[in-house]
Amino acid sequence: MSGTLAVPLVCRTSGELDAALLAHRSAGHAIAFVPTMGALHDGHRSLVEHAVTLAPVVVVSIFVNPSQFDDAADLTRYPKDLAADLVRLTDLAHLAGSASASRAGAPGQLIVYAPGVDDVYPDGPAATIHVADVTDRLCGAWRPGHFDGVATVVDALLRRVRPDVVVLGRKDHQQVVVVRRLVEQRGHDVRIVAAPTVRDPDGIALSSRNQQLDSDGRARACGVPRALAAAVMARRAALGSATPVRVTALVAAAQEVLERAGVTVLDYLEVVDPERIVEVADVLDPDGEALMAIAVHIEVPGGSVRLIDNVVLGDRDDEDRLLAAVGAT
Ligand code: AMP
Q1: Average per-residue pLDDT in the chain?
Q2: Residue 44 annotated in active site
Q3: With the C-alpha atoms ordered 260, 311, 208, 329, is the resulting torsion angle positive or negative?
Q4: Sign of the CA dihedral 178, 38, 161, 122?
Q5: Sorting pLDDT into bands at 50, 70 and 90, what band is 102?
Q6: How far apart are CA 235 and CA 257, in angstroms?
Q7: Which 3 state secondary structure label does DSSP give 215?
């Protein structure tokens, strides 16, 4: 058996998904899961590529979850094009098939689970799951109910897919922390892997929302990764001169870059503990890690686009990837 299945199999209901996974489950094939809201870009694709290295069976969900939108206009504007998404996954279906063929084991398969709202919430709006503490700050504070929506849908999807491993993007760092807590809280037996942020050549983190930026907005949005890079460099300069690394100084360095770029509407620019998402002392431990996270609104004709980005200060690889992306190495 060649085992190379070259197009993603599309399941529109959990019944179809069960049927597609049945043979894999009974053969004991590992399943990797990549949850998405579609409008797939190279950031999503990098998660799927990573998933292919982790398991012969990869399930990508495409579901724009209404309950995680705290702004109805944002939900309406959110790009939705399943046909285009499937095209973007075709070569990855080949990859899944051939990666597994080369393992000489389970036939590889890429399965797209693209359910409707009724399939995910058959009894109407689900009882909401709340993940406490790690949702008190950053997007948790600025988007009321957002992480309840995320936790609720991820729980529902995990119960359907029952994966061995879930691959998430570090671009949504707080979401990774929330999902890790959710998995502990609900007793899901699954490993969570966080993959690096993929950026455009101008340093901007890929996001489905970037489609809504005009060229002027895009030029201003470049200030976001540059602001993070300025904080990385300020931290390195302090370490190099053996002076204390102060959060206030790092935030000031980032803030200055945002202002110069013309980014004026901020939800937050904060440095927090990367695991617990709580405030850190002003003087950072030189050997420790701290998350600098930014959420801004970029004004465009007819509205604004909310963008988030982050860097884990003290995580050399994360810092270096960011500096390379903004051309600051
Ligand atoms: P979304 O479709 O926005 O819900 O994102 C689905 C998954 O893709 C999440 O785990 C995100 O963190 C991840 N993701 C989104 N943008 C990027 C990016 N630029 N690089 C890497 N992963 C990303």
Answers
A1: 94
A2: yes
A3: positive
A4: positive
A5: low
A6: 15
A7: helix
User: In angstroms, rounded to a whole number, what is the distance separating the alpha carbons of residues 204 and 217?
Assistant: 12
Residue 2's pLDDT is: 45
Ligand 1: which of 50, 69, 92, 172 to mutate, judged by most atoms within 8 Å of the beta carbon? 172
Ligand 1 environment, Cβ below 6 A: 36-37, 43-44, 46-47, 168-169, 171-172, 195, 197-198, 205-208
CA quadruple 203, 205, 211, 213: dihedral positive or negative? negative
Report which protein residue has its CA nearest ligand 1's atom 22: 169
42-54 tens-digit pLDDT: 999 999 999 999 9
The Å distance, Cα 175 to ligand 1 centre, comes to 10
Q: Please state the separation of Cα 88 from the chain's center in Å.
A: 18
Is there a contact between 170 and 21 (Cβ–Cβ < 8 Å)?
no
Helices 146-161 and 14-26: crossing angle in degrees, nearest 10, is: 50
Residue 274 is encoded by which pair of tokens?
């990367």
Token code pair at residue 14: 């959990």
Are residues 195 and 167 in contact, defined by beta-carbon separation less than 8 angstroms? Answer: yes
Nearest CA to ligand 1 atom 10: 168
Predicted local confidence at residue 105, as pLDDT:
65
Residues ≥6 apart with Cβ < 8 Å to 140: 134, 146, 147, 174, 178, 277
